[in-house]
């Protein structure tokens, strides 16, 4: 598969090569926490007597679905299409959305839901660091080389 072929060939930032066994454990735990957190939001929407809490939970629930779409897009962007720049934009947006869900919305509408999303926020911070570091070490040097080639070509023409 493309992940198994591509990932080992990338230069990675410091602390950027977690053990393979960490991924299934981390994602299983994260999805379980996110699933229960989204259930708590839905429960708040359906049962809270506070209109403000219902509104906050409804906004967070919508952002949760948006975050799932961004999460779903990342792997095909980074590995399948090999578009790490677009993947970096995706994961940066995803991380921001999840922080918005976690901090102001969840903690006010459902404290437990906010705590359940905190590990996901932290994991995404690390994943964004990995994507950004990989982009910096693997993609940026190509852009710099192309720019330098253009500069040197211009000097040669003088």
Provide the descriptors you would attach to this structure in a database record.
158 residues; mainly alpha; 5 helices; elongated
How do you describe this structure in short?
With 158 residues, the chain is mainly α. The chain has 5 helices and no strands.
Secondary-structure class? mainly alpha
Q: Encode the helix/strand succession as letters.
A: HHHHH
Distance between the termini: 49 Å
Q: What form results from the Cα inertia axes?
A: elongated
Count of helix runs = 5
Query: Would you report the number of β strands?
Result: 0
For the CA atoms, what is the radius of gyration?
20 Å
The averaged pLDDT comes out at: 84
Proportion of helical residues = over 70%
Poorly predicted ranges:
none
* Main sheet specs: none
The proportion of residues in beta strands is under 5%
Give an overview of the whole structure.
The protein is 85% helix and 0% strand. The chain has 158 residues and is mainly alpha-helical. The chain is built from five helices and no strands. The mean pLDDT is 84. It has helices at 2-6, 22-47, 51-80, 84-109, 111-157.
């Amino acid at each position: 598969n493309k992940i198994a072929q591509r990932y080992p060939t990338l230069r990675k930032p410091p602390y950027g090569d977690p053990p393979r066994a960490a991924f299934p454990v981390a994602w299983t735990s994260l999805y379980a926490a996110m699933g229960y957190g989204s259930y708590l939001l839905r429960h708040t929407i359906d049962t809270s007597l506070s209109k403000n809490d219902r509104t906050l939970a409804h906004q967070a629930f919508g952002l949760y679905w948006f975050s799932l779409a961004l999460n779903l897009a990342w792997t095909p962007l980074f590995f399948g299409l090999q578009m790490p720049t677009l993947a970096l934009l995706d994961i940066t947006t995803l991380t921001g959305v999840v922080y918005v869900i976690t901090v102001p919305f969840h903690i006010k509408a459902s404290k437990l839901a906010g705590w359940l999303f905190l590990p996901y926020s932290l994991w995404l911070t690390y994943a964004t660091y990995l994507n950004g570091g990989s982009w910096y070490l693997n993609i940026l040097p190509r852009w710099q080389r192309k720019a330098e080639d253009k500069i040197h070509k211009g000097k040669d023409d003088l």
